[in-house]
Structures are given as structure tokens and as C-alpha cells.
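Illustration 12: Vacuolar protein sorting-associated protein 11.
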Amino acid sequence: MEGRIWFLPRSLQLSSFQAYKLRVTHLYQLKQHSILVSVGEDEEGINPLVKVWNLEKRDGGNPLCTRIFPAIPGNKPTVVSCLTVHENLNFMAIGFADGSVVLTKGDITRDRHSKTQILHEGGYPVTGLAFRQSGKTTHLFVVTTENIQSYMLSVKDCPHLELDTHGCGLRCSSLSDPSQDLQFVVAGNECVYLYQPDERGPCFAFEGQKLIVHWYRGYLIVVSKDRKTSPKSEFAGNEPQNLDKQVLNIYDLCNKFIAYSSIFDDIVDVLAEWGSLYVLTRDGKIHALQEKDTQTKLEAREPMLFRKNLFEMAINLAKSHHLDSDGLSEIFRQYGDHLYNKGNHDGAIQQYIRTIGKLEPSYVIRKFLDAQRIHNLTAYLQTLHLQSLANADHTTLLLNCYTKLKDSSKLEEFIKTSESEVRFDVETAIKVLRQAGYYSHAVYLAEKHAHHEWYLKIQLEDIKNYQEALRYIGKLPFDQAESNMKRYGKILMRHVPDETTELLKILCTDYRPSGDGEGPGMSEGKKANSEEFIPVFANNSRELKAFLERMTEVQADSPQGVYDTLLELRLQNWAHERDEQIKEKLHNEALTLLKSGRFQTVFDKALVLCQMHNFKDGVLYLYEQGKLFQQIMHYHMQNEQYNKVIEVCELYGDQEACLWEQALGYFARKEEDCKEYIAAVLKHIENKNLMPPLL
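Figure caption equivalent — predicted structure in C-alpha cell form:
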């Protein structure tokens, strides 16, 4: 009231300087600049003066006054009711008791770079002003005792919009921070209203005559006269009746609770500085309110909130104070336990899902196994897999849940994720699906993830789709196709002999996976050892013969076992054939094979085969090849083919002279008349002088 401006630093050492000759009525300290704007009077009966002070610069020990100008153009003295300055120093607004608002645009610290205009005129005193900056858009909220308006200053002519038809008293409006979307807060006696520049937002029913409203770090501070409310006082006097005291309430609008409430004697103002709130009372005292740290707040409030089962509020409180994930997880667990104990299993599982990554999954799984709440358990396990935190046991359990619920659509959705999104152990999934009889799902997984053994095992042992298994083997790389034909060849031969034989023919000659495209870049074919596949044909001699004949046609250098087995098959067929024409054909085929020259290294084996099947021409051919002339003759002797005996002597006698002597002995021992043959032999012996005449 003496025209001085006072400074109170943290050390609480007061200092002041003379700013006006008469009185100072309003101050506005910018948050981001050392600029102070004041309104006051230097003499009675003239316009109030606005002064802009630079607190960092000095003028004779006092702050430097960079600008002085009348609050309103013209000479009519008008009472200033409120003042606000934009943090960018380009706007200043002054409200007056006669209902007008003056706007200064441009650099407010200098005369030459700014201009002043009357923005608003009306019949009701202006009680509050606030700038709102959103991107490049600047709005000015103007509240009077009877209405609320919003002006868009970033557009020419500053268009305005009436937001409401009731207003508030002096010091009963404020601008919230981004946590409440920079809304304009207006406190009436029945409610507190929030406004966007273009519409009214939510309202809160806080009763009582409002005296002061501020916004501080996400909290709404309201000082009101409320005869009905009488909370415990920490600062008020000791009188038994507190009915005319003032109530300071600090509201958390986000989480919808009262963070602090107390009764004070006559409050001058509530000020925010140095990270605390200071309540200045008319008796010259300053009361400091310090916000507790997050952990202390939660520890103090959580038991109360949990007791009242206000878990959602506890969660919101923890989130708004950026509690770490471990702390949040513990609240979710307790909330889940609470809902579970009440029998709300659907709600409980939603809370337990929020603990994934922190709470041991077995804690949740055991609860829902006991309760037989399979669909809840399924939801939990699904999320566990989505977050890639599931192990093989969890996969087994989830798939068993799907199969028990017979939920094929969910099952398909789960297994048909793209390869990059697989969040489970594929082999485990295949085993579980197979066990549950979901064979088509199991083979889908096996084929998609190249688990060839599982694919073939299920196709052959469970589905018994032999054609499909054979097609699949034909698409595999050579090594895998070869090993799988050795493993499953017999079962395939039993059910699809022709197709199996065809694949084996390809595998042992010029194999390329059936999926490979044709073209110049195609890899060279590979071939397996045909002899190794002979056991596959154990009970399929017809297919074996076709296979072996194909091998000998295309591969003259086929393994010896191929030729040995083919000879044996041809001899068997010949021996069992009844039709003379066919028998003759089979005879010729066997003899041709014998004469192919492929049995020189296995002479004895071929001879035994021919002898076993009584294949006379083959035996004789082999004797001849082996120069076993005596055996040829003995063969004819056993069969008493006398002409053939003479013939053998004539053919091979020159190479082995003793043949004639053996023939003579043979015929001489015969009881029947063999004079003709004996004479022929003796004649030859005499001509060739093979024996001494005496003998």
C-alpha cells in the first residue's frame, strides 16, 4: 500500500524498493524470464500505470524499469482487476472492473515494438485472464462475474466464442497444466468447471464459496469458505468453533481424490516456489506444504485404498506418479487376488495378465487349474505367448486348453502365426496336437516349420495318407529324401507300391526335389545307392524286378547286388512259370543277363543260383565260362545224355585230353549196350594216340 515491491528469497531476508509513489495493486512474475510486470498508481485520479521490470539489470540498486505505459488508452481512470502475461513476452492482457480487456501485442518490454488495443468490452467486471498456447495457436480466456469467453489471438481480428453464461469471482480461475490438457479452470460456488478454447469440459461438484484457485503440478488448489466441512486443523486457532474458517483443499483431478485438506485462519494467498507450496495468512505467518515422494505417498495410501478395495485408484495414483513396473505389478497382483477371492475370475485374470513379466506364471496358473477356469487360463497363457515369455510347458498347457475347449478357431490363429512371430516351441506343439488327435493342425505345423520326421510320422502312422507322405518326401532335399525312404520305404511299398517304386527309381538315378524349378540355374541331380533300397521290396517282387531292370537300363555300373538280385528274381519267375511261351521268354531273359558279363566276380554265387533253380542252360554256360569241362561232362553223364558226353569230348577234348578217358570209363561201366559210343571213343583215342595200346 506504500508503493513498494518486496522480495523474499529462500533465506527469508526481506528486501524492497519503491516502485510507485502511491500503491502497487497487481504483480505478474514470468516463470521463464526474470521479468516482473506490475500495475500501480503514482498519483490519485489518473489511469493506473503498467511498469515492466528486468530483475537481472540494475538501475541505482533497484531493478531496471524497461517500460512504463498507462493500463488503458485515454484518460478515464479505470480500476484494474487482473493481469496476465504470455511466457513468450509477446502478449499482455489487463482486465478492468468496467468489463474491458486491453491486449498488448509485440515485445511487451519495449514501447516501440508493441501496440495496445481494447480487445473486449462489457458490462461485467473482468475477474480472470489466462493465455493458452497450443502449437502455433494462442488463445486468451476471459472470465467475468457473469460469463466466460475465449479469443483466438493468432488469427486477424481475434474471433471470440462465448463458452458459458456464468462466471466467477476474482482469483477464482486458473489454467491447468498438460496433465489436464491446458484447460481453463473456473470455480463457481457449486462446481468447478474446466474449459477448452471451443467448449466446456468436465465439471466437479466442489461446494462452498470459492476464494482462491491455483494450479500446481497436476493439483487443483482451492481455498473456500465452507461452513459444512470441518476437517482436522493443523494451523487454525484453538477455538472450538471453526465454522467461519477457510478450508484449503488440494485435489488430484486425474485420480479423483483429495490429496490434502486443512483449515486455516484468513488466507491471503497460496504461493508455489522452491518445489513447495506456501500458505500466507493474514496474521503474517507462512505455512510450508511439502509434497511427499511417490513411494511414501503410496505406502501411506495403498493400505487404505486396498482396505476400501479402491484398487483402480491405487493403480492410477501409482501410474500418475510414475511408479516403477515392479511396484505396479505388485498392485495388479493384489487386485487380482482380491477379485479372485470374490469369485470374479474374469476380472482377476485381467489383473494377473498385467503382471506378466514380473510375477512368476506358475502363481497364476495353479489358481486357475484348481478352479477349473480353463477359458481364463487360456487368456493368460495367450498373453504369455504374445509377450514371448512362455516355455514349452506353457505351450503344452495352452494347446491342451484349446483342445479341451474345442476352440479350433483360436487354435488355428495360434499356430498360423507368421514365422517371424512364432512365440512357442514348435516340436512341443506338434506332440501335444498329435496326442489330442488334432492331426491336421499338427501336420500343418510340421510342414510349415520343416519338421520332416514329425510330418511323415503323423501322415503315415495317424492319418495314413500314404500318397501325401510320398509327395512330401519327393519335395525334400536329397539327403532327407534318401534317409526317409530308408525309414518309411517298407510301409509305403506295402500301401502304394507303384508310386513308391517310381520315386525310388528317380532317387537312385537323377533326383531333384519336386519343388525345384526347371531352368539353367537348376542344381545337378543326385543319386542314391540302389542296392541299399532292395530290402524295401521285401514282399513286392514284381515292383522289385521293375526297379532293378530300370537300374540296369540307365546305370550299367549299378552295384553288383542289383544284378545278383535281378538274376535271382528272373530265375524264380522262370522256375514257377507254367505257360510254355512265357517260360521260354523268361528263360531267354535270365540267360541274357547271365551272358551280360556282370557275374565274373561272383561266379560261384551265380552258379549256386542256377543250380538252386535247376537252370540247366545257365549252369552249363557258367561251367563253360569257368573252363570246368569235366563238370559239363559229369552234368551230361548224370542226365545220361550219351550224345552230349561225346559232344563235350569233341568240343573240349583238345583242351583237356582226360575227357576221352573218362568217357570211355563211363560207357564201359554202363550195363546197357553202349558199343556204338565205346567204339567212337576208342577210335578217337587211337587216332589221337591218347592212351598206350596195351591199356
